[in-house]
Write a structure and sequence with these properties.
Layout: H1 20-23, H2 40-48, H3 52-64, H4 68-74, H5 77-92, H6 111-121, H7 126-146, H8 149-161, E1 166-169, E2 185-189, E3 194-198, E4 206-209, E5 218-227, E6 230-240, E7 242-243, E8 246-247, E9 251-255, E10 268-272, E11 275-278, E12 288-289, E13 295-296, H9 302-311, H10 315-339, E14 343-349, E15 352-355, H11 360-391, H12 398-429, H13 441-448, H14 458-471, H15 482-490, H16 494-498, H17 503-513, H18 529-556, H19 561-593, H20 599-618, H21 620-625, H22 631-648, H23 652-657, H24 663-666, H25 669-672
Parallel strand pairs: 1-5, 2-5
Antiparallel strand pairs: 2-3, 3-11, 4-10, 5-6, 7-8, 9-10, 12-13, 14-15
Length: about 675
């Protein structure tokens, strides 16, 4: 392997731990600047939030199971799968995995705590994380949220402990994210009071189902309910798969085989050949079938019923987003600590090679990602809190639920895309050493790659975000597919579509928060958080207005709604992403503003400013095209980003230490000792 430009693997790992001097080596910044000091334990406490004890329990469990980071490299796939299952069951015994379930079944009764625990689990082996997500989040969540007391009594206590293993059988080979079009059928037989579960063709087989290939005893199966020849839409059923480890008659299971990553999770494909289950196996929170075949539901509209059902499963999206953000923390911790110790080339002193973290380009590569990780952390904190409030009944409001669904989708999108980008950049920043499996990037890259399509493809999820924005989360939100959204927007009065996004109002809004009014080229005000918010708000609303106008124009011209949507789909995605990026920035700004004055606030403001300006800088072409950024101000932003990177350099190791990644989970003996 060529190592001319790369950071080579180092055999004397003990010499690579940063000394106190190297952690905060001075760097040249503007005159008059006073360097803040980071209190790492206090910052860790801030990041851990109200669930610090729960997070520390997970950290302790991860440290005790450190060997699993090595097991995938030394075990066969079958052995590693069993090892992951055993670790999951052992962790369940500590109460870590059951925090979100009702106390009467052995759970902790705190949904927020369960999200915090799951996020923290991402510091360790991600096959364990996903196995936990499948067993307790997806399968357990389906039983809890879609079932009623009879199902809770029958299954929850055993699934919480891991005595009963299950899977979540929704995705099909031929239908992907289009859950409403699932092909599996559940036909009610009035004579026997049973549902007959059938896979009509290979396109309707359940695919990529975690826990299915080896360990699941039962499945929560999503299928089209049919009664007397009439389709009633997708519903969920509890279907046994195995007894004493043997696959039951009528069920066929095939192993998906070796994957890019997560090979401790036994993904499988499932076919059902007329499998009969009792009427009670319908998860009947939102709809039921009487003994004589009468369909009953408190939600008359089929689309609304479907989206209400799926909305109860939003916790999975919240958890996957948090997992992606925490995986990024692991990569940044390893890379930043390594860069604060590894030297390369003589730069300022001909006798001494310079620390690679002191190079401006290295700072440019890592510190905006570090800042964005903090921003996403606080955005995730907000979403997790909203999830807890909604599902604990503290916020009982239909619009709050719809906003939660959209915000959870958007945060999941940005968090998982960020993980993919950050882990790759960190791998490259560690050069040859980053290519060694011993330094964790092999597993981090492979195991997180699928997060961008877990719980919904990211581009599809952004369409959900856009739907909420364009319809203002109206009461019709749950009734609409994408084509319905197009027709809804097109049916609005022109004034309604354009009112909030008219150019002169947006221009005035952004001018109002600029210290210099029309003086767009001045450097003063670049670190004003009101300026940052105004810029991202302008982009969001301008893009959203553009989408609305395009949708309306297409329909007014007599085009098919599907064709209209397809033509503007890139604008839809762009507007949704701009919206989520603005919300992420808002979360960071609000968090820092709430802090008492002091070094911690100053330090976090450095990261917040860097996140805001690097976000604007990354899309400077758009802002310049739309008259919100002159070339002179664009250059000033780049200078400010560089200056912020220099200010963050002495604090960088402290910032990553505050993530609280257990040293045992860093592995990376070659890098860190």
């Amino acid at each position: 392997m060529p190592t001319t430009d790369a950071v080579d693997p180092v055999t004397d790992a003990g010499d690579l731990q940063p000394t106190e001097e190297q952690r905060s080596e001075p760097t040249e910044v503007r005159a008059g600047y006073v360097q803040p000091v980071v209190d790492v334990p206090a910052l860790k406490t801030l990041l851990d939030g109200k669930y610090a004890d729960e997070r520390d329990l997970v950290r302790k469990n991860l440290a005790e199971h450190r060997q699993i980071l090595l097991d995938e490299e030394t075990m066969t796939t079958a052995e590693f799968r069993d090892r992951v299952r055993d670790v999951v069951v052992e962790m369940a015994g500590t109460g870590q995995t059951g925090m979100g379930f009702p106390t009467e079944y052995g759970g902790g009764g705190d949904i927020g705590a369960s999200v915090a625990a799951f996020e923290t689990l991402a510091f360790g082996d991600l096959s364990v994380l996903v196995k936990v997500g499948v067993q307790f989040g997806l399968f357990g969540g389906a039983i809890l949220q879609l079932g009623t007391k009879v199902h809770h009594d029958a299954y929850l206590a055993d699934l919480i402990t891991g005595r009963l293993m299950g899977c979540f059988a929704m995705t099909e080979t031929g239908h992907g994210s289009n859950v409403q079009a699932l092909g599996t059928t559940a036909t009610y037989d009035t004579a026997t009071q049973e549902f007959v579960i059938t896979t009509p063709d290979d396109a309707s087989r359940k695919d990529y189902i975690g826990n299915a290939a080896a360990h699941a005893d039962v499945a929560a199966v999503f299928a089209q309910l049919e009664i007397d020849g009439e389709g009633r839409g997708v519903h969920a059923f509890v279907v046994p798969l195995r007894e004493d480890g043997e696959v039951l008659p009528g069920v066929r299971i095939e192993d998906c085989g070796h994957k890019m990553g997560l090979n401790g999770v036994d993904n499988g494909r499932i076919w059902f050949d007329g499998v009969r289950v009792p009427r009670a196996n319908l998860l009947n929170q939102f709809a039921d079938v009487t003994a004589d075949g009468v369909y009953e539901s408190s939600i008359d509209n089929a689309n609304r019923r479907f989206f209400t059902m799926l909305g109860t499963l939003v916790q999975g999206r919240v958890c996957v987003g948090g997992a992606g953000i925490n995986a990024s923390k692991v990569a940044l911790t390893i890379t930043t600590k390594y860069a604060a110790r590894r030297r390369q080339f003589e730069a300022t002193d001909p006798e001494v090679e310079q620390l690679i973290l002191d190079y401006g380009m290295h700072q440019r590569r890592l510190f905006p990602l570090l800042a964005r990780t903090y921003a996403l952390h606080f955005a995730q904190e907000y979403v997790a809190g909203a999830l807890h409030d909604v599902f604990s009944g503290l916020t009982d409001d239909d619009q709050a639920r719809r906003r939660l669904e959209a915000r959870a989708a958007g945060t999941k999108v940005l968090g998982t895309w960020h993980a993919t980008r950050t882990i790759q950049e960190c791998r490259e920043a560690c050069g040859g050493a980053g290519y060694l499996s011993a330094n964790r990037f092999t597993a981090l890259k492979a195991d997180t790659d699928v997060f961008t399509t877990f719980e919904g493809d990211n581009h599809v999820l952004l369409q959900l975000v856009a739907k909420g924005l364009l319809t203002d989360y109206s009461s019709e939100f749950e009734d609409m597919d994408q084509f319905g959204m197009v027709k809804f927007v097109a049916g609005l009065a022109v004034e309604t579509v354009l009112e909030r996004t008219s150019a002169h109002k947006l221009f005035q809004r952004i001018k109002d928060v600029l210290p210099g009014g029309d003086e767009w080229d001045q450097e003063a005000g670049l670190l004003d958080s009101n300026y940052h918010r105004a810029m991202l708000r302008f982009r969001e609303e301008h893009m959203l207005g553009g989408v609305a106008r395009r949708l309306k124009r297409g329909i007014d011209q007599g085009m098919n709604p599907g064709e209209v949507f397809s033509r503007v789909q890139d604008h839809v995605i762009g507007a949704a992403r701009a919206h989520v990026e603005r919300m992420v920035l808002d979360s960071f700004i609000e968090k820092t503003r709430a802090l008492p004055d002091g070094d911690q606030k100053v330090a976090l403001n450095l990261l917040c400013d860097l996140h805001a300006l690097s976000t604007i800088e990354a899309d400077r072409a758009w802002f310049m095209e739309h008259g919100r950024l002159s070339s002179a101000r664009s250059k000033a932003i780049s200078r400010e980003v560089n200056d912020l990177c220099r200010k963050i350099r002495p604090l960088a190791v402290d910032f990553v230490d505050a993530f609280g990644v257990p040293p045992e989970m860093l592995r990376s003996e070659e890098l860190l000792g």
